[in-house]
Design brief:
Chain A is α+β, with helices and mostly antiparallel strands and 360 residues long. Chain A folds into 2 domains: 9-166, 2-Layer Sandwich (D-amino Acid Aminotransferase, Chain A, domain 1), CATH 3.30.470.10; 177-343, D-amino Acid Aminotransferase, Chain A, domain 2, CATH 3.20.10.10. Chain A has helices at 62-66, 89-102, 110-123, 200-203, 206-214, 260-271, 283-292, 329-343; strands at residues 7-8, 32-39, 43-51, 55-57, 69-71, 74-78, 84-87, 135-144, 156-166, 177-182, 219-223, 231-234, 237-243, 246-250, 276-279, 295-302, 306-315, 318-321, 353-355. In chain A, strands 1, 2, 3, 5, 6, 7, 8, 9 and 19 form a 9-stranded mixed beta sheet that branches. Chain A has a 6-stranded mixed barrel with strand order 10-11-12-13-16-17, surrounded by 4 helices. In chain A, helix 2 (89-102) crosses helix 3 (110-123). Chain A is globular and about 60 Å long. Chains A and B meet through strand 4, helix 1, strand 8, strand 9 and helix 4 of A and strand 4, helix 1, strand 8, strand 9 and helix 4 of B. Strand 4 (55-57) of chain A pairs antiparallel with strand 4 of chain B, so a sheet runs across the interface. Bound molecules: pyridoxal-5'-phosphate (2 copies). The site of one pyridoxal-5'-phosphate has 14 residues of chain B, from strand 13, helix 6 and strand 16. Chains A, B: Keywords: Amino-acid biosynthesis, Aminotransferase, Branched-chain amino acid biosynthesis, Pyridoxal phosphate, Transferase. Chains A, B: GO terms for molecular function: L-isoleucine-2-oxoglutarate transaminase activity; L-leucine-2-oxoglutarate transaminase activity; L-valine-2-oxoglutarate transaminase activity. Chains A, B: Its EC number is 2.6.1.42.
Chain lengths: 360, 360
């Protein structure tokens, strides 16, 4: 663990904070940001918290040309008593390094990153919104900055953390969405970058999202890239199916992002003695289960929505309605439990939350 | 075609130019660059040539997070008589728009882009190196700049062109390389972004390049993402095989970049009455052809190297030596013909080159 002194430069003018009710996702940013540089000679160096400000980069910086970048997404929640909690942040920093490995980006000390993040949040604590369902979204990311056009890993990087107060995902209570089963575009294939949280995976999905929207569905259900047969993910969420009292989710196929909410849902279900299986699930099987009446619930899991019930699936000319297009009991229970733990309203038997106030 | 006035702001201090012999690929940049902005209200606006300078971008600019970016690569060549030629530039701008379509980026007027490029090169004409084999590499690119973290197409972009004098690809004459047939990592799968020139495709390849290097080979030969059975591309080049007097190249499978050098080679071969086929080619077939003695030549095609003969292929435990690890006659002929047309030393029966000096 590098023990470099964290430099802190506070802003002189604080920005005006938006109303809690006016918040959107990732639109407003707090007064400060964290930044640290990398060079081959020095490793990661010069960690600093500075006023939120534009980056100055050479037009040849590699991130613009060859997309060498990784990111994470997690949230800080303010609880009723005013304390602030992070949800499994060490998992995010672990995943950041896993993503970096796939993209040939040098790893960062995970404990150190968490310490920097905590310090940044402490400085911008006033920005954490208080209305139920709101939170402070945290975006750590790494970009390649060397200004050369040779196609090769960069020799310089920047690691940054920016913070954005975000509104409630469900403004009118948890509600099912419709999803479009994509049979044409591919999110990821084995041997590709699907297991990494890297920029290129996301823009690649816009065309599919256009198709979903044109088909009046909110999100895309991705099938595997090889056969377009097996279910992978929903938009930027992992996906679960309740079939005949048991819960099934696609296994980590090598092209799925390993969600931290997914992991937590699996652990919760196990603790509730609800059978849960990670395996290959074909879309045909879901159609059959729907026909035979064993498809009880479908839901997505991810940091943004936590649990997102699916009320309808559209695959080619099959239209599947799930649980009468209503939020199922298990989806609701998972949502209540997880958000309860995250905000500190419920006990945290797993030790998942990290309180900002606790000394490390 | 928008008819917006091109604004030109020249630099006050010219940079020192590197020695022709010291040039590398994409390391030095000229005195000026072209830049233009996009917003939903205005479309593409404010085209300007300004001194080469850093970009100032919000840390939330979408390019850093979701990789929405496309680029092109082409060259300007100075001929013996001092005139300057571009090689099929309209093809690059057409492909830029095709890439943009895949990435949900708004298209740019192609004729206009060419006019801006010509003007930029005229201003930085002194930067075009003169030594044989050298050229001015041209990098047009688009980046998403809207500072929001919602996963959706950006509403703001920048289109830029930067110029870099580059050294000769072959310092000691055209020479064969060894390639490693990648059987683990995937460059692109059907339905993905392989047909587009977008950042995420390139960083995804670094791990495979590491494996190639570890196996003492210069470049990667990509197999298809579905079955790892059919040949797709070599590094950032298309690939051709001369089998028994005929030339074969992978067809446009939906995961291959349609190279402009590839297209030109196909047209040249046809004009020479050499049979050329675009089709699926399995790596097994290449192994068999090598064994039976019908594998005569292998070469890559791309803007950087023009023609890159392959002398050796390593696939699992098969090691294939091609043409005694020497540059084949056809590779040499194609190289001489193409570079001759590009530099103006040979006639240009196809009308492929665009002279900077000619008025539009
Ligand atoms: C592609 C993708 N799948 C799944 C998820 C869910 O992961 P997590 O639960 O860690 O937020 C995310 C990110 O949020 C994602 O980007
Ligand atoms: C992936 C890839 N394939 C092939 C090529 C060859 O294309 P071109 O001949 O247009 O340079 C390139 C780019 O140069 C490329 O990036």
């Amino acid at each position: 663990m590098t023990t470099q002194k964290l430099e802190i430069m506070k802003c002189t003018h604080k920005k005006q904070k938006p109303e809690s009710s006016a918040l959107e996702f990732g639109k407003y940013f707090t007064d400060h940001m964290f930044i640290m540089d990398y060079s081959e000679e020095k490793g990661w160096y010069s960690p600093r918290i500075i006023p939120y400000q534009p980056l100055t980069l050479d037009p040849a910086a590699m991130v613009f040309h060859y997309g060498q970048t990784v990111f994470e997404g997690l949230k800080a929640y303010r609880s009723e008593d005013g304390s602030v909690r992070l949800f499994r942040p060490e998992e995010n920093f672990k995943r950041l390094n896993q993503s970096s490995d796939r993209l040939s980006i040098p790893p960062i000390d995970e404990a150190q990153m968490l310490a920097y993040l905590k310090e940044l949040i402490r400085i911008d604590k006033d920005w954490i919104p208080t209305m139920p369902g709101t939170s402070l979204y945290i975006r750590p990311f790494v970009i390649a900055t060397e200004p050369t056009l040779g196609v090769a890993p960069s020799r310089n990087y920047k690691f940054m953390i920016i913070l954005s107060p975000v509104g409630a995902y469900y403004k009118e209570g948890i509600n099912p969405i419709g999803i479009f089963v994509e049979d044409q575009y591919t999110r990821a294939a084995p041997g590709g970058t699907g297991t990494a949280k890297t920029a290129g995976n996301y823009c690649a999905a816009y065309k599919a999202q256009e198709r979903a929207t044109a088909n009046k569905q909110a999100q895309v259900l991705w099938l595997d890239g090889m056969e377009k047969k097996y279910v992978e993910e929903v938009g930027s969420m992992n996906v679960f199916f309740k079939l005949n009292g048991e819960v099934h989710t696609p296994g980590l196929s090598g092209s799925i992002l390993e969600g931290i909410t997914r992991k937590s849902v699996i652990e919760l279900l196990k603790s509730w003695d609800i059978p849960v299986f990670e395996r290959r699930i074909s879309i045909e099987e879901i159609v059959s289960a729907s026909k035979s009446g064993t498809l009880e619930e479908v839901f997505g899991t991810g940091t943004a929505a936590v649990i997102s019930p699916v009320g309808e699936l559209l695959w080619k000319d099959h239209k599947i309605v799930v649980n009468n297009n209503e939020t199922g009991a298990l989806s609701k229970r998972l949502y209540t439990e997880l958000t309860g733990i995250q905000t500190g309203e419920q006990k945290d038997p797993f030790g998942w939350t990290v309180r900002l106030e606790d000394e490390e």
